[in-house]
């Protein structure tokens, strides 16, 4: 086989010269790039048509709205790479009112992400304010513990957040949902947070059961309550010997 290939190469050496291969490859490449250039020109033409339609529609919109200003898309490039309402950290630190710590506490069977929208809206609504959020998570996954335990967890979490972050908040606010409001009320009454009481600013309570759940009556619970009250009053007695059911015979 080697001899056969060698004879073919020797019979026509110009055909297998490197320049011949290069010329052949160039012609092949040229032939295959024609369709792609056609597709590219077609796509470019379609994009130009869309851009032209967009600009015409935008100018018509501005004319109908009698809008004399500029629209964001009028700029040839991005005006700024920073997100909306962005305030540099150094400018936030110089805010005259100082750091505002906001503690968000979730409710029963909740987690630290439950109040994330509240955090987002506050950041958007107060863009220049130096805000710091503590999304409480010490009680998530174990919200059926007793109140003292959950209160201790929240108190420790607040103190750790301030100490670990080397924070000196001038104002402290709380945002609670459902059971979280009761835990907040218990936490701010603890002596460990007494030095922070003068800095309290806002308490936003969302669906907090501050008056208990007296008006939420379940039939089964009410029946049990009546039975217990009757037994305690001695008006209900259980017979010592209950009659057994008679077995039926077929």
Automatic annotation (TrEMBL):
Highest taxon above the source species: Eukaryota
Gene3D superfamilies listed in its UniProt record: alpha/beta hydrolase
Record field: compositional bias (Low complexity): 25-45
Signal peptide: none
Spans annotated as Disordered: 1-53
Short name of one Pfam family: DUF676
Domain (DUF676) ranges: 97-218
Biased composition (Polar residues): 9-24
PANTHER family the record matches: DUF676 DOMAIN-CONTAINING PROTEIN, LIPASE ROG1-RELATED-RELATED
Protein name in UniProt: DUF676 domain-containing protein
Organism: Ranatra chinensis
């Amino acid at each position: 086989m080697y001899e056969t290939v060698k004879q073919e190469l020797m019979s026509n050496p110009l055909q297998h010269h490197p320049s011949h291969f290069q010329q052949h490859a160039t012609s092949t490449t040229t032939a295959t790039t024609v369709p792609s250039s056609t597709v590219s020109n077609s796509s470019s033409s379609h994009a130009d048509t869309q851009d032209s339609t967009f600009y015409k529609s935008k100018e018509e919109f501005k004319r109908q709205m009698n809008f004399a200003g500029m629209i964001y898309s009028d700029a040839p490039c991005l005006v700024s790479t920073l997100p909306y309402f962005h305030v540099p950290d150094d400018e936030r630190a110089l805010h005259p009112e100082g750091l505002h710590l906001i503690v968000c506490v979730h409710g029963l069977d909740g987690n630290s992400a439950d109040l994330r929208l509240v955090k987002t809206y506050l950041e958007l609504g107060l863009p220049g304010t130096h805000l710091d959020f503590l999304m409480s998570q010490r009680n998530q996954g174990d919200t059926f513990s007793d109140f003292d335990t959950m209160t201790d967890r929240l108190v420790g979490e607040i103190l750790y957040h301030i100490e670990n972050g080397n924070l000196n908040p001038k104002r402290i606010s709380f945002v609670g949902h459902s059971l979280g409001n009761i835990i907040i009320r218990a936490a701010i009454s603890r002596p460990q947070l007494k030095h922070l009481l003068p800095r309290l600013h806002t308490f936003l309570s969302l669906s907090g059961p501050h008056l208990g759940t007296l008006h939420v009556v379940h039939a089964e619970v009410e029946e049990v309550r009546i039975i217990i009250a009757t037994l305690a009053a001695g008006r209900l007695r259980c017979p010592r010997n209950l009659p057994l059911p008679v077995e039926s015979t077929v």
